[in-house]
């Protein structure tokens, strides 16, 4: 119902925690960020809503960037045209001096 309402108003659905993986949380937390992200994004795409996302945590590692890419284009790259499912935008939160003044910046440049 939320995605349908957003579609009627030509809104963009922006969701967070794109970098999080289930395996990074203890079982006791009963947290499933991968499934949650897929549920929300799929609901948006199903209702023809533009979908965007953002990271939630300060992370500068390849695993986090790869998870963001998996969520941004769940079907990978289509060499024969635009991908069927893709995000229209990504907000990178927590850009900091730590990122810009360290070896993390090389990894970040590859991600971008």
Automatic annotation (TrEMBL):
It catalyses: Hydrolysis of (1->4)-alpha-D-glucosidic linkages in polysaccharides so as to remove successive maltose units from the non-reducing ends of the chains. The keyword NAD does not apply. GO terms for biological process: polysaccharide catabolic process. One of its GO terms (molecular function) is beta-amylase activity. Keywords: Carbohydrate metabolism, Glycosidase, Hydrolase, Polysaccharide degradation. Its EC number is 3.2.1.2. InterPro entries: GH (IPR017853), Glyco_hydro_14 (IPR001554), Glyco_hydro_14B_pln (IPR001371). It is an enzyme of class 3 (hydrolase). Belongs to the glycosyl hydrolase 14 family. This is Beta-amylase.
